[in-house]
Amino acid sequence: MKYKFSKYINLLVCFCLLTVGMTTFMISNKNYLKAKHKIIDFDNKNIESLYLRVTDVYGRDNQKTLFQFFSEEDSLERMKKFCGILNKEFNYLEFDTQSLLVLDDFNYKDEFRIDYGKEFFGENDEIGISLKSVQMGENTYDIFNLESQLIDGRGFENNDFIFENNRTVSAILGHEYSELINIGDTVNFEYLSKNITVTVIGFFEKNTSVTLNNNIYFLDEFIIIPSLDLNYDILNEDDERFQKILYSLKNWGYIKINNGEDFCDYRKRIDDISKELDLKYVVNEGFVYPYIRNISNTINSNKGIFLIASIVLFLILSAIIAYIYIWNYNKNKKIYSIHLICGCSLLRLKLRIFFQIFIQFMLSLSIASLVNRLILGYDNIYVSERILLRQAVRQTSILSIIIMIVICLILNIYINKSNIYSSIRKEN
Amino acid sequence: MIKLNNICKNFRYKNTEIKALNNINIQIDKNEMVAIMGPSGSGKSTLLNIIGGILKQTSGEYLFNNKVVIGNETYMAKFRSDNIGFILQHFALINNRNILYNIGLPLKYKNIEKSKIKEKVISIADSLGILNKLEMYPHMLSGGECQRVAIARAVVSSPNIILADEPTNSLGDYNKCEVLDILKRLNKEGITIIIATHDENVARICYKKININDGKVSN
Predict the structure, then answer these.
(1) Contact indicator for B202, B35 with CB cutoff of 8 Å
(2) Residues in chain A closer than 8 A to B56 (CB atoms)
(3) With contact defined as beta carbons under 8 Å apart, do A289 and A387 qualify?
(4) Which among A1, A342, A421 is the nearest to B49, CB-wise?
């Protein structure tokens, strides 16, 4: 027992040192990479604007569901407040493509329909017919300068965005509608389970479009209605549900960001506002991520110094580990030589030792990754966090593998040089 | 069976070349019991290690059953596993493993099933009177018992040759006689035995003696 325990103590010490070295390096590497990826840069990338998508994370990663959130008291008030702050403090664009369910006889072409397939609408459209529609906020309408692309009628005015119960909703139609319906006509639709009356106020010219990141929305076949700001009290349970769904969609908008702006600052501000209102909203920076520039002087910052320190620590620990392996080899040399006289080859023996080292490295690497993922605040919600962690894990793995190979090479040279058989003649 | 032609073995120690063996020419036939005699440092263990395939000669030719023994480490390991059993002065047992494991170790490297290893170990241990020690650990046994375990390990894989390096040095007179009796019995069963010793009493039981002095065979 005594022998076994001391054997495992060595391995345990090596394992602990390795895990500490790898974890420290991974953390500092992740933080360093995080500091490096900060500034938005779309120079020379042939784009004019970038938009950060605001999304909620209800129902994801052990978060409560949107349904559970809706059942909370004042949830609607908080969502309305959040929407107000987004519009006030950011260059916020409300833009959604919720379809409208046709309630009247109405001239439309098949290509205007949202094709959810027969399963959704039934074989003979008995469930209903939904038409393509866009809901856009006032800022969106202005930023894309859609007023200038009207060919007939008028554009949206401030008042059109405010919705009171039973009031008709103004709509500008895509060019394809211009032959089928007239300005001033009204049509009844169901929008988010609420019946609304839409009045046609104008038509866009052909090929009018809105581009948000890599998505281009051609509006020719769309009914464009304002993203509604509700200005009336809740009428009943159905209306309350309508309001909640409406605001949850309004809050899934876009923040326009400019070249050279601090991307992390946006993320932090949304996080802070969301936390303050006890909401689960974040920015989805997936599309923006490739446009985040490295800051070249990060190496001189605190993060850079920590990274260098962690590399030095890892190397020192690796040297100690190499020493322990050599010491352990010397300690077990007699046992190894017994195996050799019993028919084991030196190669097999070395492979066994190297395999032990490999297993230790892999276990330590796994634990270091787990610690980084689970314990040290890895935020699965953010794409950048995932990417940075992946990069940090990859770089730690590469460094670990290099160190492992060096240790194995040193040990191999040491084993070849040492006279393994001489130990067999020594007394116990 | 074994033929060594002009075998030399040099070791390097701090930039100095030391000649451990110098032009050794010997022949050992099948079923012989040979004593290699000489004082400490004369080169008898080095010779034994070359015969056992543990060390490679610096020059010369080693023939086993008329075939040259030469190859990489893996080949030599197979050669050891197939042909050689070792018995050493300090028994060379693995202390944190029980006797069953120690005796069965050579069979493990012959890829024999666990159940068959156990069967074979029991049979050998029984013939050497250590059957009741199989679950014990080496430190629980006396010197004579330990050497019997070492002999059991040497013969378990049915080798052609047993190489015994000072097999009785750590033993008292009674155990010494017992071990020599076992070796004689094994020789009668057909195993070639080569004993490196400086003890005349041990050499007396062998049919052939080879004297080594300063790395050279002397008559």
Answers:
(1) yes
(2) none
(3) yes
(4) A421
Contact residues, chain A, for B157 at CB < 8 Å: 343
- How far apart CA A186 and CA A183 sit, in angstroms, is 9
A338/B90 Cβ within 8 A: no
Residues 179-218 on B with a CB inside 8 Å of A are: none
What are B57-87's pLDDT values in tens digits? Answer: 999 999 999 889 888 888 888 999 999 999 8
What pLDDT sits at residue A170? 96
Q: Residue for token digits 């909203």?
A: A281
Across the interface, do B92 and A424 touch by the CB < 8 Å criterion?
Answer: yes
- What residues have CB less than 8 Å from B38, skipping those under 6 apart? B44, B198, B211, B212, B213
Closest Cα in chain A, distance from residue B205 (Å): 24
Distance from CA of A10 to the nearest CA of B (A): 16
Q: Does B115 touch chain A (CB under 8 A)?
A: no
pLDDT for A340-357, tens place per residue? Answer: 888 888 899 999 999 989
CATH match for B2-218 among 3.40.50.300, 3.40.50.2000, 3.40.710.10, 3.40.1010.10: 3.40.50.300
Tokens of A154: 């008028």
Report the amino acid identity of residue B216: K
Joined together, the tokens standing for residue A287 give: 């599309």
Residues A169, A194 contacting (CB under 8 angstroms) = no
